[in-house]
Amino acid sequence: MLVTSPPLTPVAAPASLDAFLAGVGPRAFRFAEAGLRQRDDALDAVQDAMERMLGYREHPAEEWTPLFWSILRRRIIDLQRRRGFRLKFWAPAQDGDGPIDWADDSPDPAQQHEQREEYARLVQALRRLPARQREAFSLRVLQELDVATTARIMGCSEGSVKTHLSRARDALQKQLEVSR
After folding, report:
1. Which residues have C-beta within 8 Å of that of residue 174, sequence separation ≥ 6?
2. Cα torsion through 75, 64, 158, 12, rounded to 10
3. Could you tell me which of 7, 116, 173, 179 has the fewest CB atoms within 10 Å of its CB?
4. Cβ density class 81-110: b for 16+ within 10 Å, e for less
5. Do 127 and 92 touch, CB atoms closer than 8 A?
6. CA dist., res. 160 & res. 154, Å (int)
7. DSSP assignment of 69-106, as one string?
8. Which residues of 21-55 are buried (b: 16+ CB within 10 A; e: fewer)?
9. Contacts of 67 (CB under 8 A, 6+ apart)
């Protein structure tokens, strides 16, 4: 299975910061939950990031996306450090955490099960990637951010993002082909 990012289409800037936050909220929560592996901590991290964004209300709407994701990423890292681990997104649970809470409104149980199985395989494959590759893949592919924005969020060059993403895709493709 080849993992590729969908074509990015230009998105119009939101009319207000409230509209922006409403649109980014669910994706931000999934990103935070994946990094923190605890629902309550993820909700707190997203809420903190959204509250901080209120201070940037006067900034141009084009700056909100990279700014928000940078704030959220730093908040996740802070929470991880407090727990004694750093940037171990999707690390295997050591304390017997329950399964990931699946919030899927699909009416078809068979389809739900298949989606869960595919997602579980992807998460397991992502857990095996180095942290920077996982981060680049999450931001570029799962969050659908462009290379420049991802580079700003990760604090590295665009070339580094492309390298990390390419290596992540290669590793994921190999892992997912083996698991089928």
Report:
1. none
2. 140
3. 7
4. eeeeeebebbeeeeeeeeeeeeeeeeeeee
5. yes
6. 10
7. HHHHHHHHHHHHHHHT--S-TTPPPSS---PPP-----
8. beebeeebbbbbbbbbbeeebbeebbebbbeebee
9. 53, 56, 59
- Give the residue from 126, 106, 113 showing the smallest Cα distance to 37: 126
| pLDDT tens for each residue of 114-158 | 878 888 888 888 888 898 998 899 899 888 899 999 999 999 999
Q: What is the pLDDT of residues 50-86, one digit of tens each?
A: 999 999 889 988 989 999 999 999 998 888 888 764 4
The Cα–Cα gap between 112 and 133 comes to: 28
Two tokens at 147? 């290379």
Query: pTM value?
Result: 0.53
Closest CA to 171 of 109, 115, 126, 108: 126
Q: Terminal CA-to-CA distance of the chain, rounded, Å?
A: 9
Whole-angstrom distance, CA of residue 123 vs CA of residue 100: 10
